[in-house]
Amino acid sequence: MTPTTQATSAAGLGLSHLLSNSNVESAIGTLIDELRTAQQSLTGAQPASGEHVETMQNWLDRVASTKGKPALYPYVGSGLGNGPLVQLEDGSVKWDMINGIGVHMFGHSDPAMVETAVRAAMTDVVMQGNLQFNADSILFSELLLEQAGSDSRIEHCFLSNSGAVANESALKICMQKRGGVAPRIIAFADCFMGRTTTMAQIGDSAAGRVGIPLNTQVDYMPFYDPEHGVRSIEYAVYHLEQQIARYPGQHACFVMELVQGEGGFNIAPREFFVPLMEVCRQNNIPVWADEVQTFGRTEQMFYYQQLGLGDYIDIVTIGKMSQVCACLYTADMNPKPGLLSGTFVGSSVGLNVGRRALQRLRDGGYYGSDGKIAALQKAFRQHAKALVDKHPDWFGPVPHYSGTHRQASGLYGGVGGMMRLTPFSGEKGRILKTLHTMFERGVIAFYCGHGPFHIRFLPPVGVMQPQQFGEVFEIFEASLAAAAAE
Ligand SMILES: Cc1ncc(COP(=O)(O)O)c(C=O)c1O
Questions:
Q1: Whose CA is nearest to atom 4 of ligand 1?
Q2: Ligand 1, atom 8: closest residue by C-alpha
Q3: Which long-range contacts (CB under 8 A, 24 or more apart) does 85-90 make?
Q4: What kind and span of H or E run contains 412?
Q5: Is 328 helix (H, G, I), strand (E, B) or coil?
Q6: How many structural domains compose the chain?
Q7: Which of 153, 295, 305, 420 could form a disulfide with 291 if both were Cys (CB 3.0 to 4.6 A apart)?
Q8: How high is the pLDDT of residue 19?
């Protein structure tokens, strides 16, 4: 893809002078210095301070009132953070190991990101649209495509505001590509795809589609079973071929999370995906990687790159840490005019902060088997192993998944900045108890899986240091002890 402009700055003609003006530079410098000073007060987990507890309760009552139901965690952020630490409105400071489910890749109030956001906020209105946009959205798209296209056939992208809408775009593209006569979708059991009416139907969670009249036809495939290795691959291929034989020419796509996110951080080797993708190719079924959760977070910017699957990918969706979501596709999948649009492409701040995050990840030594992200996964595993070895009574065998013959692969693991640990044989009640105790004591994490359940970390890989897992695991261990004692 050849850029049509050499411009690399977010501000075009009108504002480039303003943003490099020495008064503006010095004002932004002052803001950032003040921010850094404020951040220095956050050095580790701290309990709530008495005077602010009531303020927090007031906010929580208002959340419950506006949403009609209480928040899962008593969390209202103050807007201040430092590395992986975040301050809440009650004055407490916590290690944020979930980051809005993978959104804050560089933690909260990171000075470089705030500086980018302040500059972006000076350019034009807040939201940019599909009809009228600034250079920001072109630069963001170019950077994405440069990364995606380095080892795949991806050439174009369409930006949107949520992962679910990026997925809607992808599904429409696939359906149009198949001539409007292929209504069925192939997806893995336990997948998650977002909350639109259609994505909630494809996503394999009964609770997510309660009350929705079903009008989307999904054929579910078994995901990789580490216990059965090669046999599980043969079984999956057999299953896929059967579905295709059962409904010839009727599949719009095979959508795959290459690491299952909400489904439990389940991973599979390249050897699992290749034969499935080959079968798709032989049958003209587009291969769509849903990387909304994996994007940016594994040992390459896209996880299909880490697995060396670029050649098979027809379409890929991303979101979360990029701040602006996107559907990326090959020239062959490029839809006809009119299929994709929408008022917003993203906010000026989102486009610039997202691009800055991608640049920092690309240039900052994060990727590769010896990069910073791999080092974080290694440190996580070391701490997890030590915990499991020290407390075998908390880590019993993980039972089979209900409904399939799949078994959880080990007591801890994941890939890159996606980490999981499975105490109490994956029993939901005690896992939730552990998570709430962790929260009270200063670590914010979350769960994943549909049973067995796992404790899930999506740490801010851009700013987390491996040694910081030390304090996180101390709190984790104490919280597990509290849940075990019940
Ligand atoms: C794999 C995957 N796809 C799609 C989505 C939906 O993204 P959003 O919540 O931004 O609509 C998610 C969100 O968790 C996800 O994990």
A1: 193
A2: 163
A3: 85/42, 85/43, 85/44, 85/45, 86/444, 87/42, 88/48, 88/56, 89/52, 89/55, 89/56, 89/59, 90/48, 90/49, 90/52, 90/53, 90/55, 90/56
A4: strand 412-415
A5: strand
A6: 2
A7: 295
A8: 80
Are 351 and 389 in a shared domain?
A: no
Residue nearest to ligand 1 atom 7, measured at CA: 163
| Cα dihedral 105, 109, 111, 116 sign | positive
State both tokens at 90.
């009650």
Separation CA 383–CA 470 (nearest Å): 8
Least confident of 151-160, 171-180, 215-224, 401-410: 401-410
> What per-residue confidence (pLDDT) applies to 198?
98
Question: Is residue 113 situated within a structural domain?
Answer: no
Q: Tell me which of 8-17, 123-132, 277-286 is least confident.
A: 8-17
Cα dihedral 266, 269, 274, 279 in deg (nearest 10): -40
**Ligand 1 pocket: which of 193, 259, 295 to mutate (most atoms <8 Å of CB)?**
193
333 and 418: one domain?
no
Q: Domain check: are 356 and 446 in the same one?
A: no
Residue 56 inside a domain? The answer is: no
Is 88 among the domain residues? no
Q: Give the CATH number, domain containing residue 387.
A: 3.90.1150.10
Residues 222 and 316 grouped into a single domain: yes
Same domain flag for 279 and 398: no
Contact between residue 359 and residue 353 where contact means Cβ atoms under 8 Å apart: no
Q: Residues lining ligand 1, CB < 6 A?
A: 101, 162-164, 167, 192-194, 257, 261-262, 290, 292-293, 319
CATH number where 300 lies: 3.40.640.10
Containing H/E element for 356?
helix 348-363
Instruction: Quote the mean pLDDT of the chain.
Output: 94
With cut-offs at 50, 70 and 90, classify the pLDDT of residue 11: low
Do 181 and 317 share a domain, yes or no?
yes
Q: Which domain holds residue 150?
A: 127-363
Q: What is the mean pLDDT of residues 240-244?
A: 98
Q: Which residues pair with 290 in a beta bridge?
A: 317
pTM above the 0.85 mark? yes
pLDDT tens digit sequence for 371-413 = 999 999 999 999 999 999 999 999 998 876 544 444 445 899 9
pLDDT for position 124: 79
Helices 229-246 and 270-282: angle between axes, nearest 10 degrees: 20
| More reliable by pLDDT, 16 or 31 | 31
Is 274 found in the same domain as 255?
yes
Helix, strand, or coil (residue 105) = coil
